[in-house]
Amino acid sequence: MEFEDDAFVLGARAFGESGAIVDLLTARHGRYAAHVAGGASRRIKPMLQAGGRVRMQYRARISEQLGGASLEPVGEGPSALFDDALALAGLSAAAAVTATALPEREPHPGAFLALESLITALGFPEIWPAVYVRFEAGLLQDLGFGLDLSKCAATGAVDDLVYVSPRTGRAVSRQAGEPYHDRMLALPRFMLSAQAGLETGDVGAGLALTGHFLEAFVYGPVNRPLPQPRVWLVDKLSHAQRL
Hints:
Strand order of the largest sheet: 1-2-3-5-4
Number of domains: 2
Shape: elongated
Radius of gyration: 19 Å
Distance between the termini: 46 Å
Order of helices and strands: EEEEEHHHEEHEHH
Number of strands: 8
Strand content: 15-25%
Helix content: 25-40%
């Protein structure tokens, strides 16, 4: 088995004296783990940071075994964010959620594009937290658990959608949801329209929304918690008053 593809590094761990097992999200082949010879070397180790973009050449004797990969860096990678601890936290959270939510060796081109968009946005402090929320919503969509925010689940109305049902993931209008507002999830306006402005509390509401459905549909069924970098991200954004 052999292929070449664009990929983002999701994480890496040491293997043997000088190698590394690298987890990658490829553009056309999905998430792949691969052995990278010399992964601990000065030349290769810097490109194995989470979020680094690479060109990957993958080879395996049979499709079921762990193959080997050679990597070439594309662009400057996450080094451009080294002076922004909050953006690095966002990148770490995105990599961790991607690595733990997506099954291996299953094409998810939408997830690749969503991660690509988020990494591009990380250079813009005023918008990337909202883009991160959209990234997680897109990941849920790609996994088959997309939120239905097109109309009110109860009345069919398309206006004044301010809640999401925690059970179904469908939008609910203000009027229909008011009697149950303490059980509903808040729906921030920026998740309905890219043109909607951000208000105080929107990012926090968005993270609570996507976090609820990641736990309900992705992590809960396999008895796993949300990845720790994702938990840390919410904490760091809270301390920075960015929620």
